[in-house]
Amino acid sequence: MRQLSTIILLTVISQIKSYSQSHKQMEQAIRETVIKIEQAAAERNNNLLNSLLHEDYRVIANRFKGSNEVTIISKGNYLVMMKNGKIGGTKYSIEFNQINITSHTAIVDLTYKSESEPDMHKYLVLIQNEENSWEVISDIPLVLE
Question: What is the pLDDT of residue 13?
């Protein structure tokens, strides 16, 4: 009986440790994805952005820059705006405020800081695709003025 209890305890500890490592690995992969997206936007690298954004990606801008409306921008329109220089081109430093992961979905609370543009608070929703890579499906920016 004592051996069985020891085996069960070691199995439980092993599973907890495995979960913790897996969670940390997912968090690191999410951080890397977010950093790549920021760099790609700063460089207006549409090829890289296209690979990091889910096909159903949307920007949801609520009262953005003084507007009283919600603006929703599809991935296609976002990439066209990037290509035409209407958005992107600004280098931001990123502060990760919080990363919440549930299964194959994550919500990331960020602050983007720039010396030349107003800072932004962002909420990104990421999903893990079939290849276990993280893609951003939703971006909710708030300009801090």
Answer: 44
